Amino acid sequence: MDEIALPTLIIDEEICRRNIRNMAAKATHSKIFFRPHFKTHQSLEIGRWFRDAGVTRIAVSSFSMANYFAKDGWNDIMVAFPVNTRELPLINDLSSKINLSILIADADVLDTLEQNLTHLTDFYIKLDVGNNRSGFDPENLDALTALLEKAGRNLMLEFRGFVAHAGHAYQTQSLNDVHKIYKTGTEQLSNVKLHFEKQYPNIISSWGDTPTCSLVNEFHDSDEIRPGNFVFYDLTQFHLASCDWEHIGVAVAAPVVSRQKDRNEIVLYAGAVHLSKDFVKVPDAGKVYGEIVKLTPDGWLRYNEPIYVTRISQEHGIFYCPDEFWDDFPQGSLAGIIPVHSCLAADLLRHNRFYNLKTGTFME
Amino acid sequence: MDEIALPTLIIDEEICRRNIRNMAAKATHSKIFFRPHFKTHQSLEIGRWFRDAGVTRIAVSSFSMANYFAKDGWNDIMVAFPVNTRELPLINDLSSKINLSILIADADVLDTLEQNLTHLTDFYIKLDVGNNRSGFDPENLDALTALLEKAGRNLMLEFRGFVAHAGHAYQTQSLNDVHKIYKTGTEQLSNVKLHFEKQYPNIISSWGDTPTCSLVNEFHDSDEIRPGNFVFYDLTQFHLASCDWEHIGVAVAAPVVSRQKDRNEIVLYAGAVHLSKDFVKVPDAGKVYGEIVKLTPDGWLRYNEPIYVTRISQEHGIFYCPDEFWDDFPQGSLAGIIPVHSCLAADLLRHNRFYNLKTGTFME
């Protein structure tokens, strides 16, 4: 890792490929589609690891991300975010080349789409199954019927089904709560699909989020899953118990820039512009911005007594280092940080390029 | 603003230029140097607005940022972050071309610098005046003397002075506290400089941070100021009372992607990957991630009863919109958001390019 000079996301390819294979196998076992969300990694090379595991359909969170992956040969891409009609030129360009799906969360987009879509575009309807972020009430079948009637008059729109995302699964305190969210949410999703499939026989239901998809072994009541974070996992998922420690596939390598022995504090070159300000609350430590690990040529080692990044500013991250581990972090060395939220850390660090531990090279 | 399709930082050039001129005038009035911190904007074009105001010396937070501005003709650049010795090849390259200053916050870097610096490089010593982040205790003159003796044996290092940054001024609750931090911190800085200037007659003392530099009208006890955020200001500075509303020079234009009339909520395409998750606590509203404004061709208008972004996820920002303003935000329109922390928003949004309100064009 001598070549690493800047805060860098280091990737354990073996762990990530195993996470991909495990989730793909669960989907196959339940005979449902697997449409992983690529916003977590935003990497062409990691995308190819999914392809190696048989993945052909993906989700992304923006049209520019769809465009990026379309150029690498992906041709079934859902933009799993309420359609931004200000991007219609790009939407039309993508629809002319690949099988693009958009998300409708608000009936008011239909007029704009009617007037501007130039190519056949698949759409899914976003249902709100308790996250209260966006989408239609699954109980309000009248609103859904009206939406579908109006959309049906647009020859450029092809109805494909319903999607839901259990963002509220991230806020839970227990595994039991995660299972409840899964059960209630997928039942709502399934009921809506059953109601409409007489009229639209080929529609599917699509279900998202890493916590429920990680904890559930058999998927009922949805025809597709769209988790994203599971390829890397992170400290949030670990503390939610969505994953074990050995499933975490990324760490941030952070240069040690200053050590204050008088208060046993070490300052890392890794701050909010590298890790984000996302935190997780940890017993006995409160809000933490990452867990410190010892980097080795093969990966990283956890300390028996966890060490956390407890303060963060724009470029600085600070941790308390007990005497016995002081020599693990000499000035100018690299410390490892398991990020709180790997999606945000990867988004911030992709401009520095990711480092593949296995090949010992920076990734394209 | 029809061309704006993505979350975009929009810049009021008049306001920013006025902020620059005002700070430059205050420095001139106090007969001290003005070394603005460019990490806030990271823009060549905005850098030139500083040049128009007579600025010749700048601070940045990384060597890559120094390199970026060096290519635009800046040749007196301080990297105001504890020197990261893993970047020595770039440091040497920069030192061979421009007047580069580095920051020493830890004596342990000296051996590495001794062995690897190939060109004369200016250095400043970082003092910790109460922020407890990094740097030397200003009371510990023995440690400073030892550091300077060791550094003096390195023919590639040229001692230039002391720097301090009052990061703790951001955590204050009252203007009185900000003034106290300024007084105590600059006195400590000044005392250290006075102690060493007999031996090093040309050294200076350099003082940072936007809150104190904004609130103080006459600068005593420092020879230079290094504020950064003041060029844009933001909601945090407004609530700290470092600036008035009309000094805020940026807003984020965010596409309206979904509206939930049943609960008067509007979902914007502007989330943690655009605004960061930084928040400010506001009376009666709690934690907020931005304040909603109405965009106009000339700028933005504040609502009499402030409207805040109160929930944020990776790409979504959500606000409660009272009935009377519902029609200000039709589906597909742009809402304005005054960001909580303009440095982080600018860092995240610079890849989408900034939009200059005055010229009606995207900036390079």
Labels describing this entry:
30% helix, 6-stranded antiparallel barrel, 11 helices, 8-stranded parallel sheet, TIM Barrel, Lyase, Ornithine Decarboxylase, Chain A, domain 1, 2 domains, 364 residues, alpha/beta, homodimer
CATH architecture of the largest domain in chain A: Alpha-Beta Barrel
The SS-based structural class of chain A is alpha/beta
Helical content class of chain A: 25-40%
Name the poorly predicted regions of chain A: none
Most extensive protein-chain contact, per-chain counts = A-B, 57 and 57 residues
Rg calculated over all Cα atoms of chain A? 22 Å
The string of secondary-structure elements of chain A, in order, is EHEHEHEHEHEHEHEHEHEEHEEEEEEHEE
Assembly status: homodimer
The main pleated sheet of chain A reads as: 8 strands, parallel
Strands across the major sheet of chain A, in which order? 2-9-8-7-6-5-4-3
How many structural domains of chain A?
2
Anisotropy-based shape of chain A: elongated
- Assign the CATH class of the largest domain in chain A: Alpha Beta
Q: CATH homologous superfamily of the largest domain in chain A?
A: Alanine racemase
- Strand content of the residues of chain A, in percent? 25-35%
Could you please say which CATH topology of the largest domain in chain A applies here? TIM Barrel
Q: What's the total number of strands of chain A? A: 19
Q: Averaged pLDDT of chain A, please?
A: 95
How far apart, in Å, are the first and last alpha carbons of chain A?
Answer: 17 Å
The number of helical elements of chain A comes to 11
